[in-house]
Every structure is written in C-alpha cells, then in structure tokens.
Amino acid sequence: MKILIVEDEPAIREAIAGYLHKEGYVCEEAEDYETADEKVALYEYDLVILDITLPGGSGLEVLKSLKKAHPETGVLIVSARHSLDDKVKGLDLGADDYITKPFHLPELNARVKALLRRRVFKGKETITFNEIEVDLATNIINVNGEPVELSRKEYDLMCFFITNKNRVLSKAAIAEHLWGDYMDLADNFDLVYSHIKNLRKKIVENGGSDYIKTVYGMGYKFTSY
Ligand code: CA
After folding, report:
1. Could you list which residues have their CB under 5 Å from ion ligand 1?
2. CA distance 201 to 223
3. Which of 4, 19, 128, 211 has a Cα at 20 to 30 A from 166?
C-alpha cells in the first residue's frame, strides 16, 4: 500500500511517515501545494493524507486535482482544530474521512487502516481467489486454508495482484507500488522480477495454482484464464 503524506510541518510529516513506514506502508511526502499537486498528477496512491493549509495553495485544490485524476484514491483530511469549514468542504469534494490536529499516531493509523479496507478492499475482512485467501486483519495469505510464509513485500505484491485481477500491471506500476515514486527505472525491474518469482514459487509449493501470467512487453496479469 502506498500513501502520500501532504503536510508542511516537518516534525508532523516525518512522525507520520515514520509511524506508517513501521506499519508496513510505502510512504511518500509532499511539503507544499506545488509538490503535492504534481505528485497526485504523476503517481498513483492508495491513500493521501492531506493537510489543508499549505504553503503555495490549499489542500482542497490538491483534492480537486486528485479526484479528477484518480477518483479511486482514498483521502484522509488533516485539519486544524477550529476549521469545521475545511472538513465540510473536503468531504463535499470527495474526501473519505478527517482527523483533527493534534492527534495520536495510533489513532491516525487506525483511520488509515479502516479507510484502506473500505476503499481498496470494499470493506471485506478477507479476499479470496479460488484456493488463495488474503486475511486483511492479520496480513496472512492462506492457500487451501494453510498459511504461507511470505515477506511483507511478497504479501503486498499478492494484495496488489488480487485487488487488480484480470488487469495488466506494468513493471513500473508494481515497482512504484512496492517501493515508492521514482522507482520506474529499468534497474529496479530486476527486483520486481525476483519478488514475483519468489511469490509464485511459494504459492505453488504450498499447493496453489500459478495465476501470475507474464504479458510480454507489458507486465503481469493475475488471472485464472
Ligand atoms: Ca499546514
């Protein structure tokens, strides 16, 4: 899961990024309006944590651009204590939830987790694809009811595939999802290849079918066809 943190106060931004990174998320940061607006136009995120008062412009304008480019991305607004107006406008523009400053990082994390479950996993506790089951509460993947030991990146990769089944995912999209922006460099495609190879091997060794198909010149597709 890839999260963009838009926040101009360095201490808050870094604390959020540090906390969420430990929770296993790939975090990107933007410290002003211009950077945030550029990032939401260029890259895809599962979730954007969005401060409203930013140097150079309003977070609400970033929200408008984001909803135009990637309507499926989740948005959690971070607002100052007394700015009810920003919250209402943000929710009107398509934000999913808001949190008021100051907040505790575990609370932010709980909101993030719930929002991602609603947005990316449509509110489900588990996602199944034939014999493969992803348990979103425990971050465990079962094959025929038996847990498979996967690294965090392999787990993320399987979630990415299973939530995008029957869709071609380019190596660049996979690299960005697993490691963050600016990973769309040819060198890093070897890394994508080796993670996919390991994931396939572990699934097959545990009695699963190999649903990850190579689409030559384009990328990979998770499908039973
Ligand atoms: Ca601010």
Report:
1. 8, 51, 53
2. 16
3. 4
Contact 4, 36 (CB under 8 A): yes
Quick one: CATH architecture of 126-222? Orthogonal Bundle (1.10)
Q: Has residue 136 got a pLDDT over 90?
A: no
Amino acid letter for position 141: I
Ligand 1 center to 113 CA (angstroms): 23
Q: If pLDDT is split at 50, 70 and 90, which confidence band does 80 have? A: confident
**Cα 184 to ligand 1 centroid, rounded to whole Å:** 30
Q: With cut-offs at 50, 70 and 90, classify the pLDDT of residue 213.
A: very high
CA of 22 to the centre of ligand 1 (A): 24
Per-position b or e across 85-117, b if 16+ CB within 10 A of its CB: ebbebbeeeebbbbbeeeeeeeebbebbbebbb
**pTM listed for this prediction:** 0.87
**Ligand 1 centroid from CA 7, angstroms:** 6
> Options 1.10.3810.10, 2.40.50.100, 3.40.50.2300, 1.10.760.10; which CATH number does 2-119 get?
3.40.50.2300
Percent of the chain with pLDDT over 70: 97
- Taking Cα atoms as reference points, which of 205, 212, 199 lies closest to residue 146? 205
Domain boundaries of the chain, sorted by first residue: 2-119, 126-222
Query: What are the pLDDT digits (tens) for 25-45?
Result: 999 999 999 999 999 999 999
Average pLDDT over residues 78-98: 87
Question: How close is the Cα of 53 to the center of ligand 1, in Å?
Answer: 4
